[in-house]
Design a protein that fits this description.
By secondary structure, this protein is α/β, with parallel strands linked by helices. It has seven helices and eight strands, in the order E-H-E-E-E-H-H-H-E-H-E-H-E-E-H. The protein starts with 5 loop residues before the first strand and ends in a 12-residue tail after the last helix. It binds adenosine-5'-triphosphate. The site of adenosine-5'-triphosphate has 10 residues, from helix 1. It holds the Pfam family ABC_tran.
Amino acid sequence: MKQGEFVAIIGPSGCGKSTLLKIIAGLDTEYQGSVLLNEQPITRPSIEKGFIFQEHRLFPWLTVEKNIAADLSLRKPEVRKNVDEVIELVKLTGFEKAYPKQLSGGMSQRVAIARALMRRPQVLLLDEPFGALDAFTRKHMQETLLDIWSKNKMSMVLVTHDIDEAIFLADRVVVMGAKPGIVKQLIPIHLSHPRTPTDTSFHDYRRRILNALNDHEEVVELSYSI
Ligand SMILES: Nc1ncnc2c1ncn2[C@@H]1O[C@H](COP(=O)(O)OP(=O)(O)OP(=O)(O)O)[C@@H](O)[C@H]1O
């Protein structure tokens, strides 16, 4: 995987998408093969890798800004500045003092993304981050994520069940198969942003990914050097 690349992983339930993401995150070390970050094997979680879960995992008793700062003190001017910057990036300015229960699902997920961005990760790992959101909010979140990606030039690895989401966002789509751990195809998406799901070229990719998901023949080895 190239630095700054956006990769989406798609595949049927139980094929090992989350497991692959956890291995990249360093959260799962029981595997065979090698996963490298900057040519070094990944053996544990670190601040170079931000992880976004499907559910936001915010602390309900902390405000938005304290959730984002986490163990860092907001009294430090550089922390305050960073928190304000990431809040602006995820478009939550004005909600600094709100509590998670006062936020919508999409807003809570924005806080979770901001919290990960605070640590300036080289790679953001997203495990179906918009799976629980309604279609309208989901679209907004995809646009926000693209905006963050284009401004920060970090690598992104997104696990999704949604073919359109993968085509809308990714430079490359990894199609996994139902047998755990199998990568069936790597499909580069040669479309410029912003991408339009109603375009014929978008539909061609949709068909290609659907074919790859249904095709049991083609199996490729995956190299995951980030
Ligand atoms: N390569 C593998 N070899 C053996 N078992 C695996 C492998 N990959 C995943 N598994 C096992 O398969 C199960 C499902 O894996 P995982 O949760 O990663 O799938 P998923 O594709 O993310 O599913 P979902 O889309 O439903 O979240 C887990 O119990 C996991 O330990």
